[in-house]
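If I may wish for something, please walk me through the protein I am sending here so I can picture the backbone:
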Amino acid sequence: MTAEEPLQKGERPAGNPAGPTPESGADPEQGQDGEQPSPSMDGPAPENTQGDLDESALGQTATVINNFYAEVRAQEATFGMAGGASRSISGRLERKDVERALRRFVEPAAFAEALATLRERHLVVLSGAEDIGKWTSGVALLDAVRAPVGRIVVLPPNRKADDLISSVSAKRNRAYLIHDWMESGIEASTRRFTLEALSAELVKADSHLVITVSRTEGRHGLSPLEIPWSAPEPLKLLDAHLGRARPAAELAEVREHVTELRTPRRIVELSEQLRGGTRPAGEILADLAGDTVSRWFDSSPKRSEVLAVAALAFAYGMPERVFERLVVELEAVADEIERQGAEPERRPIGDELPQTRMLWDSRHPLIGTSAEPGERRVVFCGVRHREHVIRELHRRYDYRLWEPLRAWVRGLAEDRPEIQVQASAGLALLARINPEEVRESFLEPWAGGTVRERLAAANALSLMCADDATATLALTVTLSWVDDAGQTQAMTAALALAGALSIRYPQQAVSWLWFLSSRGVRVSTVAQRALVLLFQGAAERDGDALAELQLLARHVDCDLTEGVEPRLARRVIATVLGVLDADRLDADRPDGDRPLMSSLLLARPESAEPIGVLWAWALHNAHHRAAAVRALCRALGGLSGQDGAVAAAEALGRAVWSTLPDGVAVLVRRSIDQALTDRRVRPQARPTREIVLALLNAGTPRNRP
């Protein structure tokens, strides 16, 4: 069946994207199961779609998010948010990742019981509060039961119970982990039956699965497979990470107060800062526990001081003059709301001006300025102050603070990009405390708003991925906008899936963007650009997008082999060509043309297979063949002068010729020869003859089955 033949209609599985989704590499069970749907065509194409996406703003947002996930060290946090690089919540956890996660691991109290259950039943569910180390405990349990596990397949948290049962029976000798499983749709009365059936399938397949869920209900009524979980003992965790790195007297003070820290993550952070030796232990403890912030709020600060601190929580690190303007705007909004229904107050012109800068020039306990060269920027004094301030604002204040704060923060979406991103970062911290507030007051209105508001929503969802608990919320919110929520919301979902969600849930992001790329023209245009950004981001972070390329090749192969009507086929190929002809994110560097595919072919030789499949389909389509040939020549030109260029061209050629039918291959070879003299191919993008011959002579063309 060719790409021009009609698609066979199929039902779209509820809650899942179209098409196959491999876990990583060639294994299929990572993704959602179900038939390939017929993508919807939601309305006629508008005359102009440029207003749907601001390319420069999207590029800046992508750079900010990629930098955020590359390095957010506590002492140098440009977002005022402590934390490290984000890990993927779905995909494959290799041996090196397991060893890194289990370095200095301390077993929680119920570890032995959970291990015995996992060995006997091949399934265990760890239920407990957020941020108590359930993810690391799950990895440790799988490592212990499989001694040691070669790799762990990390399944996405939105996998349905029925899908799990059918998936685990398809493969043998696997280790699976699901963190923060979304149990929606599972009645308590059927939970035990579902888990028992899942356990039986795992035993048959000689596979093991650990599921973590965030809830704090008691032991009564739970399945024997579910074990209430708690954090490891704080002093043992401190000793494992700190040792004897500080004087005995100071260590005694630390050990006395370490139980006041709420989570294992805080204890690990305490250990890291103590080993750094830059601040006294008491000061570090106060900051991590939130004592400094709570004492300041206990002192009943003035209204103007509270508003300034609240403004900094959502506009962190701004230049002093910009921050002053934002504080005045927040005060004006607060005044307007407080005076509603009252007679307008006229302030005499001769009133004294408030000496606002003295607030952070007088050794304020919370607010200070950065010591970086150039214009002073207003920041919090402590690493954790920003999140503690947001927590205290939520705990202590009501409508009179939060209503003006809501209106002011919503308006920041239309401000300069760095302010927009900082507002999103503040909302990501608020989502840890009050997710309903963030979703209803900010994300939902922004998702249906202007381009800048949609970018703000996408940024907030990306920054929510810095935390395990809010990452699942970010995925849930985004997927609620994918289908049947309107074009504007679907475009917002596409932007979000190109951001940090593609780091946390790479396979799901590719699948849903592929689905969105087949919707109406407005949605499709944004989804196509977002898909390109996803691959650019993957290459920028680690030079590796192999699993995502393999998944995209599967989607293309599945859709076009089954056959779609010509107009939709051309849109599918246009999406593929957008990825194949993309530049690296650092393409503006002075060393010239930097095709993304050239970099990926050199970084991971295995990527030649899926890239070859994508190019074969693009070259097979007569409507797009000329553009596909030009993009191919440009990619080959990007290989010129690089180590391994000839081998990469040969590998790519084998994949292309083994996929194309003989008759089409002859036409494509002729087009490649002609393209070498085509003036539309820039001289600096033309490959050397050696590389072209390596591609043309690779393998033997054969008919596609």
About this structure: The chain has four domains: 1-38+545-705, 45-81+292-339+357-504, 91-228, 234-291. The CA atoms of residues 128 and 181 lie 12 Å apart.
